[in-house]
Amino acid sequence: MSSYPKPLPEVTPLTKPFWEASKRGELLLQRCKNCSTYIWYPRHICINCGSRELEWVKASGRGKVYSYTIVRQVIGNSPEFSKEIPFVVAEIELDEGVRICSNIVGVKPEDVSIGMPVEVFFEECTPEISLPKFKPAR
Amino acid sequence: MSGFRGIAAISGYAETPFSRARVDKGEPRLTAEEYYAWALELLLKQTGLEKKDLTGQGVGIIGSEWPHSEIWSAEAIQNLGLEPKLLVRADHGGANAAALLVQGVLAIHAGYVEHFLMLGADTPLSITGPASRTWRYDENYLKPFGTMGPNSLIAMAMRRYMNDYGAKPEHFGTISVVQRKHATLNPNAYLKAPLTMEDYLNSRLISDPLRLLDICIWVNGGFAILLSSASAAKRITDKPVSILGFGEWHNPNAGQPAHDITTTGVKIAAEQAYKMAGITQRDVSLFQPYDDYTVAVLMQIEDAGFCKKGEAGRFVEENDISYQGQLPINTGGGQLSAGQAGMAGGFLHFVEAARQLRGEAGQRQVKDARIGLVTSLGCVGFEGHFINNYAVVLGGEV
Fold first, then answer.
1. What is the pLDDT, as a whole number, of residue A5?
2. 3-class DSSP state of B203
3. Would you call B359 helix, strand, or coil by DSSP?
4. What is the pLDDT of residue A29?
5. What is the pLDDT of residues B76-128, one digit of tens each?
6. Residues B231, B89: one domain?
7. Residues of B in contact with A77 (CB under 8 A)
């Protein structure tokens, strides 16, 4: 068992390809084979047309900060996060049009802004899980 | 009662193959979520309907063997991308389908919806483990990044709201301060100490820009409300509060991969409610909007039509929203000051509206209170938008 102290996503048959790709440093998104809608978070059915024919495709990994918050107090999550306060939780609008929740790192929290271009990188947590995080785009 | 005969019909059905999850025998081990998706796709194929044909209709969904399923119906429709006008859940055990069917027929008979989608799926052979839990979008795709429940999601909605419309901290503070003023006049309120704008601005940042005093306070408490037919109500009281109109909308813009998180579905719900009641927002003498957070109140002032989108900050600057003002808001202190009794919190607004419309609000009584508007929000979705949205118009006399 890993000793990673914070919550981790479960790996299910649905999300296994996503987490395997994260290990390789690739960000995947679901795309509907019927209507081409991109989807995040992972679903069993297309939220646009209702087809179950979804495929995993490689995403650009680039996007812009749609909104963000600077977390200053731990409530209802692992106390371990208190060591990192203040840190930035953001909704990033990816170039594919979907929004993903993650952290913005490599920049002071007060220097983060809405619209800021960001790019993905992967933070290794355990042998199975690397979390997609974002930093200012080069 | 014979008026129900033949009013509704079953126009399509679907059933997935069954499994005892014996993976060793090659049987699939799927989650309830997967069975819901499968059954919905089968139904669409059989009926030839497109998913959008079900938008604005009714959805009824059952509970699950798995006990951890609070606000399950909202999560299920978010997972499926459904956008109904009516959303109900059954917890009637073996009678779940029948219970949904009766509610569906009632809604169709009333002309409230044309279709009512009954969804039932469960996986009693694989109920253990995280795969059958609800709130998986929170557990898997939010919490690992350090989100702190709805506080973080609403903080992001608030940031976006400030960015798009130029709202200032004082605008949120006005909601907090005025509602506290009301609470000081409400013997049942939990927080009764007077509050100034300075107190608000000095309250600590929890999830920047969200302050402590932007957030409702949890309390233990209980409510009961009796609905009766108009004639029966008159036998009980000489001050019945009529339900003049109502509207609801769930998971707005469901098929879109990205939502406008500064607008609530109250916009659609309030339009329905006003139309049913035959009024406009100008007829409303008091407004009890759902107030888990101050920004939600500002958004609902706009979405219920009291001002244009993005102008609620200026609205509360230029108008008195106290019980003595042009648009009295949360006249008992609301959940921000009176308290949020957990999942019963949304009862508070109805009880206060009824109290005001019966002229029983004591020191905080709104003068000439004739029409009350209550709006309710429930379940903060993945992107920080509210999934369940309601508006109800109440009146002292018809």
1. 94
2. coil
3. coil
4. 98
5. 999 999 999 999 998 877 778 888 988 998 999 999 999 999 898 888 787 65
6. no
7. 143, 146-149
Distance of CA A87 to the CA centre of its chain: 16
Residue B5, in any domain of the structure = no
Specify the pairing of strand B286-289 against strand B371-380: parallel
Q: Do A41 and B141 touch (CB under 8 A)?
A: yes
Q: Among B134, B167, B202, give the residue marking a domain's end.
A: B134
SS3 content of chain B, % helix, strand, coil (to 5): 40, 15, 45
Collect all residues with Cβ–Cβ distance below 8 Å to B237 and sequence separation of at least 6.
none
Residues B181 and B241 in one domain: yes
**Residue that finishes a domain, picked among B134, B162, B179:** B134
CA distances from B302 to B265, B268, B353 (A): 11, 12, 20
pLDDT interval class at B150 (50, 70, 90): very high
Compare CB distances from A52 to B38, B142, B258 and report the shortest one's residue: B38
Residue B157 and residue B275 share a domain: yes
State whether A67 and B142 contact (CB < 8 Å): no
- Vertex A46 angle, CA A40 and A50, to 5°: 160
Q: How many separate domains does chain B show?
A: 2
Per the listing, tokens 């009880």 go with B351
| One domain, residues B225 and B270 | yes
Residues 6+ apart with CB under 8 A from B325: B319
Domain for residue B6, yes or no?
no
Label each residue of chain A as H, E or C: CCCCCCCCCCCCCCCHHHHHHHHCCCCEEEEECCCCCEECCCCCCCCCCCCCCEEEEECCCEEEEEEEEEECCCCCCCHHHHHCCCEEEEEEEECCCCEEEEEECCCCHHHCCCCCEEEEEEEECCCCCEEEEEEECC
Instruction: Tell me the average pLDDT across B365-388.
Output: 94
- Return the amino acid letter for B350: F
* pLDDT, tens only, B18-50: 888 889 999 888 888 888 999 999 999 999 999
Give the residue on B whose Cα is nearest the Cα of A76. B148
Instruction: For residue B230, name the pLDDT band (cuts at 50, 70, 90).
Output: confident
Answer whether B40 touches A (CB < 8 Å): yes
CATH number at residue B36: 3.40.47.10
Which of B296, B333, B301 minimizes the C-alpha distance to B314?
B301
What integer pLDDT is reported at residue B65 of this predicted model?
65
Q: Which domain holds residue B306?
A: 150-395
Q: Are residues B331 and B361 in the same domain?
A: yes
Single out the residue of B12, B53, B35 nearest to residue B127, CA to CA. B35
Q: Is residue B155 part of a domain?
A: yes
The reply to whether B207 touches chain A by the CB within 8 Å rule is yes
Closest-CA distance of chain B to residue A87, Å: 9
**Interchain contact, A50 vs B40, CB within 8 Å:** yes
CB contact under 8 A, B41 and A51: yes
State pLDDT tens for residues A14-42. 999 999 999 999 999 999 999 999 999 99
